[in-house]
Amino acid sequence: MNIFRLAGDMTHLASVLVLLLKIHTIKSCAGISLKTQELYAVVFATRYLDIFTDFISLYNTIMKLIFLGSSFSIVWYIRQHKIVRRSYDKDQDTFRYVFIVLPCIFLALIINEKFTFKEVMWTFSLYLEAVAILPQLVLLQRTRNIDNLTGQYVFLLGAYRALYILNWIYRYFTEPHYIHWIPWISGIVQTLLYGDFFYYYFHSWKNNKRLQLPA
């Protein structure tokens, strides 16, 4: 564990807490993509298949449980909560899963470190996480005006991945033989997808204006 890894984990956790705060207190999921949340639920479900078989540390297990529980809770809120679900904009959240999931399955089957069920699922989760934010970004571009909590949620998600890249760089120079191309490339792709959002996020913050993405 190093400072970049810890900061990345805490930023990721903060993004989830911000989203839960919005949904639970305001009773609204306006501007939130259910498709992205469902993709994240799949990411954690396929990545943490070893949660009850391979113990790494108490910290690791707790974080896995938090992300699994929170991701499925968010999906339940948007789909089932009698008040929250009314604010979900289904007509705007139309990104098709097939354009994301099928390529990730294909890549996981042909490009992996070991061809076993757990390893393929873990690799699939990395590829899927890299692009799971796409439905959310498309939705924000369509709705354009973004409330403060939604903007903070997306920003924290992007910051978490950027911090993880710093964590990998740090480990590359401090740990012998630390080379993992699949998570590195997936993480870089994921961070690049946030580039346009980051630009407009900082622009709105600098000028003290409401965050708005171009159509």
TrEMBL record:
Its main location: endoplasmic reticulum. It is found in: Endoplasmic reticulum membrane. It is a multi-pass membrane protein. The chain crosses the membrane at residues 55-77, 97-115, 121-140, 152-170, 182-202. One of its GO terms (molecular function) is ER retention sequence binding. Keywords: Endoplasmic reticulum, ER-Golgi transport, Membrane, Protein transport, Receptor, Transmembrane, Transmembrane helix, Transport. It holds the Pfam family ER_lumen_recept. This is ER lumen protein-retaining receptor.
